[in-house]
Design a protein that fits this description.
It contains 6 helices and no strands. With 190 residues, the chain is mainly α.
Amino acid sequence: MIKIKKINTVSNYLSFSRVLLAVPILYFLSQMEQAYIYRIVAFLLMIIAAVTDFLDGYFARKFNEISELGKIIDPLADKLAIGGITIYLFYLNVIQEYLLWIIIARNILIFIGGSIISAKVGKVLPSNLLGKITVCVLGVYLLAAVLGVSNIGWLNDFLIALSIIMSFLSLAGYIIRGTEVLRYKKNENV
C-alpha cells in the first residue's frame, strides 16, 4: 500500500526529475547533428539524470524514505530514460537495431515479471545490485554513443558487448530472484 506521507520525499522527487529530464535530453539529441554543442548539452543532462539515480537511493536510505512508490518510480524512471534515449539514438542511426531490441526486451520483461510477482506477493521488489550495475553499463554506453564512440571501433565494440552481457545477466538475475520469491510465497502458504 502506498502511503501519502511517503510520496513527498526527496528521493521520489529525484526519481520524478529523471523522468522529466528525458524531454530536454531528447530535444538536444534531436539537434545534435546541427552542432556538436547539442551533443555536449545532451551528455551533461544525461550525467545529471545519472546523478539523480544515485542520489535518490542514497537519500531513501539515509532518511529512511524507502517506500513502495519509490520502489516503483525509481526503476520505472530508469527504464523510461534508458528506453527513450535508446529508441531515439536508434532513430538517429547511432546505435544498432539488435542492441535496441535487447535493451527494450530486457526492460519490458523485467517490468512485466516484476508486476506479476508484485501482484502475487503483495509488495514491490526493489531493484537488485546486478540490475543497477546493468543500468550503469547501459548508461555509460549511451553517453559514449552520444559523444561519437562509434568512431573508436574497439571501444564501441567493447561497450556494446558489455551492455549485451550485462543485459542478459541482469535479466537472468531477476528471473532467478522472482522464482525464489514465488517459491518462498508458495511454501509460506502451505
